[in-house]
Design goal:
The chain has 423 residues and is α/β, with parallel strands linked by helices. 36% of the residues lie in helices and 24% in strands.
């Protein structure tokens, strides 16, 4: 799972006392995966009185949940016009409302459980091509007219460059409802809340097989088996062959982040406000100032199963493209992580077989959506959830090529998108 030491681990303020599984266990719900989705499902299900056992093959939040850019986006990976055109206006509006509920739920969770995760509001999406600016302006106007959305505003070239000291950008959208946070502290804070609610969390415990036995499931691990009435697969990009039917729809993708040496006052010269920034590239660049005046920069993606030896070398050309004034800057941290994508960039939420659920494929939107989807799963199991049912009906086609050719075809498609960024 790892791809270098992370800034988040070095600055973590939350510690979770959890041990590997030791022998057989019984549960109403067994969760496989200790990231945002699994930890939130554990918290909410345990709070509803369910016996919950969570298994994580590494450390808690050691995957994408503890390694991502920490950006809080609102909405789905696809915009509302795309959703209306393909899913119909009622479904698109329901998904927008769901995304608003997800953001509100996250803020409530942070506040009620007193999770110290450095939440800061403000997120800017910048256009790296002049021809995209017209679309950004129209998108803001369309969302205001059709959805009453007032938290987004258009920014022109001058304001974009006043905010970010880079010649690469020509305009974009400023969101006051978006923002940034420390994702590992968030995940570990949810883990602590889950334990307080009564969930049993077991890191360093890999699930190796899931089989139905009678009316229940047996989840096999090297440290003992868990017998459970229901199972949630919350592995995202780390399924590793555990359920091929899910892997047909969800594909892993490596992403890389580097954090510079302390820049002092120079950090505020790069990004004039303490906001998160992402851009219009298909292979997205995202960056922000850290509370200790470093630059955290995400850029570049990989398609091989293994992480590169030198992650910083993967990130450097992307960072220096945006901020040439940082050429040769020292990286104190550089790491990789594995997220998950789907063929149409919509999240994959399914009841695979009766009692076996799978949630994943957030396509970079998991900081907000994943904790909420875990909550909706708990609600669905405890009495029903119309929103969870709606998510299970979102069409998510399998990747073409089957098991043998899925990865080569995905690599080819993403490589073409990356080429388009440079043209």
């Amino acid at each position: 799972m790892s791809g270098g030491a992370t800034y988040y681990a070095a600055t973590a303020q939350v510690a979770v006392d959890a041990a590997p599984l030791d022998g057989a266990a019984q549960a109403d719900l067994c969760i496989v995966g200790g990231g945002f989705t699994g930890l939130s499902a554990a918290y909410h299900a345990a709070a509803k009185g369910m016996r919950v056992v969570l298994l994580e093959k590494g450390a808690l939040a050691d995957g994408a949940s503890g390694r991502n850019g920490g950006q809080v986006h609102i909405g789905m990976r696809r915009d509302q016009q795309w959703l209306e055109a393909r899913l119909g206006e009622p479904t698109a509006r329901a998904l927008w409302r769901l995304s608003q509920d997800a953001r509100a739920s996250l803020m409530q969770l942070i506040q009620s459980e007193r999770i110290a995760c450095d939440w800061r509001p403000g997120l800017v999406h910048l256009d790296h091509k002049r021809r995209y600016v017209k679309h950004s302006r129209a998108s803001v106007e369309w969302m205001r007219e059709h959805y009453g959305e007032q938290s987004h505003r258009f920014i022109d070239r001058d304001e974009a460059r006043a905010l970010v000291d880079s010649d690469d950008y020509h305009g974009g959208i400023y969101s006051t409802s978006g923002g940034q946070l420390h994702p590992l502290n968030l995940a570990l804070g949810i883990a602590q809340a889950a334990q307080r609610a009564g969930a049993a969390l077991h890191p360093q415990t890999a699930a190796t097989a899931i089989a139905r036995e009678g009316g229940a499931f047996r989840v096999t691990t090297p440290r003992g088996d868990v017998r459970a009435d229901r199972v949630l697969l919350a592995c995202n990009g780390y399924l590793d062959g555990l359920e091929p039917s899910v892997e047909a729809h969800v594909a892993p993708l490596n992403n890389y982040i580097a954090v510079t040496e302390p820049l002092g006052a120079g950090a505020a010269e790069l990004i004039r406000e303490p906001i998160g920034v992402s851009d219009s590239r298909a292979v997205v660049y995202y960056f922000r100032r850290t509370p200790d005046d470093r630059l955290l920069f995400g850029g570049g993606e990989g398609y091989a199963a293994a992480m590169p030896r030198d992650v910083g070398a993967q990130v450097r050309p992307h960072l220096e493209r945006i901020f040439p004034q940082l050429k040769g800057v020292r990286f104190d941290y550089a790491w990789g992580g594995t997220l998950a994508v789907t063929a149409n960039r919509m999240p994959y939420v399914r009841q695979v077989t009766p009692g076996l659920y799978a949630i994943g494929g957030y396509c970079g939107m998991g900081v907000v959506l994943a904790p909420y989807f875990g909550r909706l799963l708990a609600e669905a199991l405890s009495g029903g959830s119309a929103d969870f049912d709606r998510l299970t009906r979102i069409p998510v086609p399998p990747f073409p090529g089957g098991r043998l050719f899925k990865r080569p075809l995905l690599v080819a498609a993403l490589s073409m998108l990356a080429l388009g960024d440079r043209l």
